Structures are given as C-alpha cells and as structure tokens.
Amino acid sequence: MQDMLSRMITLSEEDSGMDETFIVDALSGLIFGASASTGDVITLVMKYLADFPDVYNQVLKEQTAVACSKGNGELLNWDDLQKMKYSWNVVREVMRVATPVPISFKKASTDFWYDGYFVPKGWKLCLSSAATHKNPDYFPDPEKFDPSRFQGDGSAPYTFIPFGGGPSLCPGKEFVRSQILVFLHHVVRRYKWDRADKHEKLVFKPFPRLTKGLLLHIRPHQRS
C-alpha cells in the first residue's frame, strides 16, 4: 500500500479533495515524465556530448573523480549526486536548448491583468518554456551550447523552467535528476561515442526529435 496510486486512492477516500480526474492527471504526468521525456533528455545529452568533445572530457573527469572516491563495489548515494555539478549543468543546458516539454497549459483560477491584457477566470493559458529558454534577455547568445551559463547562481528565477515552477513544480524533478546522473556516471566512464551521421537534424514537432533516432559509433575506453 505504499505505491503512489494506492496512496492517492486512500487519500481520495478521506475527502481530501483528490478526485479521480486529479489522480488520472497525476499518474499520466508521472508516466510521461519518468519515461518519455527523461529518455528524450538522455538521448539529447548523448548527442551534445558527441558534438562537444571538450564538454564530454569535463564530464568524464568529474565522474571519474566521483568513482575514485568510492570503495570497491560501493554504490552511488545522494551525496555523490551533489558532487556532479558540472554534469548537471550540461544536462540543464541540454534541456534549455532542446526543451523536452516545450509548452504546458494552465487554467486561470481567477480574473487578472497581465502586461495590459485582461485574462478572465477559466481561460486556458499556454506557457512556452522553449521561448523563455531562448530569450536573449535571460540567456545571452541563446543558440550557443554553453553549460558554463549555469555556474554560480545560474539562471534568474522562473527563466529556466523545464520542470515548471512555483506550486506546480514537477514533483519528480529529483527522481529524473538522479536517473540521468546515474546513467551518465556509468556510460561516460565506460564508453566514448561519435555520431554516425553528423548531418542528422534536430527538429521540434513540438517535442525535440532527431530525424534518424541518433545513430552512434560507440567504443569502450582502453583500460590499463
């Protein structure tokens, strides 16, 4: 009875205001976020690491240092993930230039004015995180792939929003972060790869997709 669906059903029976529609929406988002969009981000991370060998080398250096700090057979833990700062900056930059969920929809819960426009209660609003991520006011030279833009204090609040923000912040953010970083930790320490087709296009329909699915030449590292 400790899985998410069981807990939601239990809460719905306690007059918590959590009805069937809410449960369906929450689980649909969880399945989508934990599989489809996460897989898209991992694919794009592989693409950009192939395109930028210097970035790959820095990720490899960081992940090797984390591995060397572990005992023989010791698994990664939460503290290890906190050491992967550069690797996570690379992932964040991937999610900025190729936002996995480029738009989202909200419903106005009350009447309000914004920038001279009146929005009535009940209207559906479309938020374009992809447009926000390419706004040069927030991200200078927005088409350039540059993980260093997230160093230090990083981006201003509510300008980098692949997981949403405020009360609607994605509850699976840390789960997704852990998934991607653990994957990176193992793959970069074992393999180096190159794109088999360097002319393959990245398109948005509206989700980011590689036209041929990212064909790679993968080779293991030579170990002494």
Task: Describe the structure in your own words.
Strands 1-4 form a two-stranded antiparallel sheet. The model has no long low-confidence stretch (mean pLDDT about 90). The chain is built from seven helices and eight strands; from the N terminus they run αααααββββααββββ. α2 crosses α3, α2 (about 20-50) runs parallel beside α7 and α3 packs across α7. It has helices at about 5-10, 20-50, 55-70, 80, 85-95, 130-135, 175-190; strands at about 105, 110-115, 115-120, 125-130, 190-195, 200-205, 210, 215-220. The protein has about 220 residues and is α+β, with helices and mostly antiparallel strands. About 45% of the residues lie in helices and about 15% in strands. InterPro entries: Cyt_P450 (IPR001128), Cyt_P450_E_grp-IV (IPR002403), Cyt_P450_sf (IPR036396). Keywords: Heme, Iron, Metal-binding, Monooxygenase, Oxidoreductase. One of its GO terms (biological process) is sterol metabolic process. Belongs to the cytochrome P450 family. One of its GO terms (molecular function) is oxidoreductase activity, acting on paired donors, with incorporation or reduction of molecular oxygen.
Annotation keywords:
224 residues; alpha+beta; two-stranded antiparallel ribbon; two-stranded antiparallel sheet; 7 helices; oxidoreductase activity, acting on paired donors, with incorporation or reduction of molecular oxygen; Cyt_P450; Cytochrome P450
What count of helical segments does DSSP give? 7
Question: What is the mean pLDDT?
Answer: 90
Shape, per Cα inertia axes: globular
Query: What pattern of helices and strands is seen along the backbone?
Result: HHHHHEEEEHHEEEE
List the quaternary state of the chains. Answer: single chain
- Spans of 5+ residues with little confidence (pLDDT < 50)? none
Mind describing the biggest β-sheet? 2 strands, antiparallel
Radius of gyration: 20 Å
What is the terminal separation in angstroms?
Answer: 49 Å
Number of DSSP-assigned strands: 8
Taken as a percent bin, the fraction of beta residues is 5-15%
Helix content: 40-55%
Protein name: Cytochrome P450
GO molecular function, one term: oxidoreductase activity, acting on paired donors, with incorporation or reduction of molecular oxygen
Family: Belongs to the cytochrome P450 family.
Keywords: Heme, Iron, Metal-binding, Monooxygenase, Oxidoreductase
